[in-house]
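Comment thread on ticket #2218

A.B. wrote:
> Attaching the input chain for the structure job we discussed in standup.
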Amino acid sequence: MIIEHYEVFKTQFDSSELNQKNWDILRTESGESAYAIEDSTKEYERNCKEAVSYEISSKYIADILKKQRCKHVVSLGVGKGILEWHLKKQMPELYIECTDYAESAIEKLKTVFVDGDDFHRFDMLKGDYQIFNKDAFFIMYRVSEEFCYSDWCKIFKKMKENGIKNILFIPDMLATENLEIHMKKRHAKNAEQGIKDIFCGWIYSEDVLEEIFQTGEYEIAERHSMGELVLYTLK
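C.D. wrote:
> Ran it. Output below, let me know if you need it in another format.
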């Protein structure tokens, strides 16, 4: 099952769907606290400390990394870096490489996430995975839903072709019949009321995600429930 996902933002965009420009606006210029990176380290760290769900997720992930004696993670689609901030608190010795395809956002994150080890722009679909340490664990935590089915297949194929062995994949949501009904009703209601919602991408069911992983010859080695989220360890 694949569900289309729309959201209402306070920020006005010049397109009907999210793109790199819009993400840069959300992260660096908007007043939307769920998306905007704070202007100072003090404000940023206060927000990270209050993000309890991220702290819970970080503990699950840190346990996996410790068991695997992992010393280096590459976070793809780092966003605000809240999970990575908590991981650094859990494992100060961990080398955390933060990447995102929103260029201004990753530059701003660098100024407030002072304990992050490396920051650079990277496009998961078009980028060259040869630049990364293949022994690192690659984390995709609630990554952008803008990739369609074929895009995700290409991403996992590229990762496998470039020798990436360890992936932790945590989707923002899993598609279900109830979620599909809810999403369609909300989208229709917004249209009736003249409220502009933005197309954010696609939400996939677990069986479809497994298909996508297998196109890159990855198997689900472990599956963990983290509250409302699910963590897949791919090998």
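A.B. wrote:
> Thanks. Noting for the ticket: Helices lie at 20-28, 41-50, 52-67, 82-90, 103-112, 149-161, 177-192, 206-215.
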